[in-house]
Design brief:
The protein has 725 residues and is α/β, with parallel strands linked by helices. The protein is built from 24 helices and 30 strands. 31% of the residues lie in helices and 20% in strands. A 6-stranded mixed β-sheet has the order 10-16-15-14-11-13. The model has no long low-confidence stretch (mean pLDDT 95).
Length: 725
């Protein structure tokens, strides 16, 4: 049935705070689109996107910062499925997640909602989440597209990012998920990218998203991200939320391009028709159990001196800190969930061990006394609720001064002090790191975190989480430090692709704990690395006396090429669970992209030819096995001419060897005092070299040489020949 222009306009502007408009005449229902991402936030009375009003009870799973540390694709997919079941039972069509923005700075107030500083991890886990939820007939909304890596001035700031950095760091997670999973919707971000609002960015929403990646779903605005509705429609934004918007409707009625309006309205109608009937309900107890499993795998054991953990049954345990009794299990803002129930670590520990409790904050003397008289002190500290939220960024990485004081006081009287951290974004472990025996990073663990913490501390679960982001020694060491959060409404991504460990490892800057770090109660060894261009196999053995899981990490180190690349980049990972003494062979696949950089001159991902080192590592800093593979260059050298630089003639597979040989035979003239004259004039265009008196080559000779060198087949043969040698 043909829709009228007014009906089309109504469809693309949203029907309510959390719903699309219906066109009953045409059988198009209104459907619900709600937050997301780690639980359902369905509001029944009034709407707000700041986490303020009430919503229906739902399972609160660990937010992405925690979930990412699991490095467990299958687990994340199962969480996605459970979220889908809850959404379906509540008649929700689309859940607003996952958030796959890169953690450019540890200060981003919303880092708890994002997975990682690494695009591969964000892409793989985000894809699993989308696969899970969409398998239940509920749509995902991949957000926030793109370069939304801070909250400061998020509605006006322009992220100034060069294209290579966008393509290699900030877009790949979106690309992976779109090309592999076809999320029902993609949410554009509030910010500008290189001066153009995401909502009005045709390059982003149409050229990259639809034309290059083949996105078939619907582009929705972040809530309130649209400024100029007609420009947004032209750029490729289909649905503006929330609605209805009288002024947008007026402008669209007057000025919308009919074809674009037609397409966007059809996409909203298609989304509405895609929705399946609601189910009767879901198994809340089973979801709580899954939330506990997810929380357990999200916990990262950072430090464990003298195997102080796990606790033994005979030990008396002082539990100190309000977080143990009143857990902070999620962040603030649009993702805030009304949990079906909340488990505290204190209750979970008290049920299984001899514990005494002191809140710590009000009476340090009481806490110190308790710690002094107990075998072990468990110190629950972390970031207060107001420190991290959607809408603003953090100013520093430190724990509150009162907590630092508490750590110092307790550690001074009990050598078995275990710090249990609660925080969405990374916190500094300085200056107290060395004074405590163990540190357990629990992030924000969702509603079942209390039981998970008890399982890990008591050893009924073996910790298997790994850091999906670096813990630096100082905020100032972070590569974005001088360019965050920007000025005059612009933030320059001056560190380029050197984000997180890509920078720390390349610049050899010491960190407290590298990306990928995490301890276990058992140990693992690696052997028998096998390699070919399609992947790596490696044998992993549990060499300790407990069952446990290891996260095998595969990094690729590129040879020197036309662009500067990080010393290593994660290109694959796999989590493997092993009984004591058991081994398994793990295979991690690689593809051409694993060896590529984005070449701005060809506008494509290219491989620089040469030897690539494949590195199996425990974390971004600790490589255990290495092997090398050769890859041929994918870029054909540019055509040689008299305007080409001498260095280009020297690098060329046909002319390079000829020049070098000629230079070697007249070495007296071309090497002076150990300096190669050819290299010294490398940046000179050949035409100008010819003007220098005495240069032993003529323009005619060069033209003839270039004519041969520019024949593709000659170049190909020459490349083959130079590789073999
Ligand atoms: C957030 C989105 C969220 C939306 C709806 C915005 O403020 O940036 O992540 O999905 O509100 O609540």
């Amino acid at each position: 049935m043909e829709l009228t222009r007014a009906e089309q306009v109504a469809l693309v502007t949203g029907g309510g705070f959390w719903s699309t408009a219906a066109v009953e005449r045409a059988g198009i229902p209104s459907v619900l689109i709600v937050d997301g991402p780690h639980g359902l936030r369905k509001q029944q009375h009034g709407g707000d996107h700041l986490g303020l009003g009430e919503s229906v009870a739902a399972t609160c799973f660990p937010p992405a910062a925690g979930l990412a540390s699991s490095f467990n694709v299958d687990l994340v997919e199962r969480v996605g499925r459970a979220l889908g079941d809850e959404a379906r039972a509540e008649n929700v069509a689309v859940l607003l997640g996952p958030g796959v923005n890169i953690k450019r700075s540890p200060l981003c107030g919303r880092n708890f909602e994002y997975f990682s500083e690494d695009p591969h991890v964000s892409g793989e886990l985000g894809a699993a989440w989308v696969r899970g939820i969409q398998s239940r007939g509920v749509g995902a909304s991949l957000k926030h597209f793109a370069a939304n890596n801070q909250e400061t001035n998020r509605m006006t700031v322009s992220a100034e990012v060069d294209e290579r950095t966008l393509r290699e760091i900030y877009l790949p997670a979106f690309e992976t998920i779109v090309t592999r999973e076809q999320p029902w919707t993609v949410m554009c971000s509030y910010n500008k990218i290189n001066g153009v609002f995401a909502a009005e960015n045709r390059w982003l929403l149409t050229e990259v998203l639809r034309e290059e990646w083949g996105f078939e779903g619907l582009v929705v605005s972040d809530w309130g991200a649209v400024d100029d509705r007609v420009a947004a429609l032209d750029a490729g934004l289909d649905l503006e939320m929330p609605g209805p918007q009288a002024s947008s409707e007026k402008h669209l009625l007057a000025d919308a391009d009919p074809q674009r309006l037609d397409e966007s309205a059809a996409r909203v109608a298609a989304l509405a028709r895609r929705v399946s009937a609601p189910t009767d309900g879901y198994d809340a107890a089973a979801h709580h159990a899954l939330a506990r499993e997810a929380a357990t795998e999200s916990i990262v054991l950072l430090r464990n001196e003298n195997a102080v953990l796990p606790l033994t049954p005979d030990q008396s345990v002082a539990v100190i800190g309000e977080f143990a009794r009143s857990p902070r299990f999620q962040g603030a803002g649009s993702s805030q969930v009304e949990a079906t129930r909340v488990d505290s670590a204190l209750d979970a520990l008290a049920a299984r061990a001899q514990v005494t409790f002191a809140p710590g904050h009000s009476n340090i003397a009481e806490a110190v006394e308790l710690a002094r008289n107990s075998d072990v002190a468990l110190l629950f500290v972390g970031l207060p609720e107001g420190d991290e939220s959607e809408g603003y960024d953090r100013q520093h990485l430190d724990l509150p001064p009162a907590q630092l004081e508490l750590i110092a006081a307790v550690a001074a009287v009990n050598s078995r002090t275990v710090v249990v951290l609660t925080n969405g974004g990374v916190v500094s472990l300085e200056p107290w790191h060395d004074s405590v025996a163990a540190i357990v990073e629990t992030w924000l663990l969702g509603q079942a975190g209390g039981g998970a913490i008890a399982d890990v501390l008591l050893g009924s679960a073996n910790p298997s989480g790994r850091l999906a982001e670096t813990i630096p020694l100082r905020l100032q060491d972070n590569p974005s430090y001088l360019n965050f959060p920007g000025e005059n409404d612009e933030v320059r991504y001056g560190e380029g692709v050197f984000v997180g460990y890509r920078y720390y490892e390349s610049a050899t800057v010491a960190v407290r704990y590298p990306f990928g770090h995490g301890l276990s109660y058992t140990t693992f060894s690696y052997s028998d690395m096998g390699v070919d261009a399609t992947g790596v196999t490696v044998r992993v053995t549990n060499t300790g006396d407990r069952a446990g899981a290891e996260v095998v990490q595969l990094y690729v180190a590129a040879p020197a090429g036309p662009v500067r690349t990080p010393v290593r980049e994660l290109r694959g990972f796999a989590k493997v669970r092993l009984e004591p003494g058991a081994s398994a062979t793990v295979r991690i696949a690689l593809d051409d992209r694993s060896f590529s950089y984005y070449d701005v001159s060809t506008g494509a991902f290219e491989i620089a030819g040469g030897a690539y080192e494949l590195q199996v590592a425990r974390n971004a800093h600790e490589v255990v096995l290495r092997a090398t593979v050769q890859r041929a260059a994918s870029v054909t050298p540019g055509k040689l001419g008299l305007e080409s630089r001498v260095s280009e003639w020297l690098l060329h597979p046909v002319t390079g060897p000829i020049f070098r040989r000629a230079a070697a035979s007249t070495s007296d003239g071309l090497v002076e005092g150990g300096t190669s004259v050819l290299d010294m004039v490398g940046s000179m265009p050949m035409r100008r070299l010819l003007r220098i008196p005495g240069v032993p080559v003529t323009e005619r000779q060069l033209r003839a040489l270039a004519a041969v060198a520019n024949v593709p087949i000659v170049r190909g043969v020459a490349r083959l020949f130079s590789r073999k040698r």
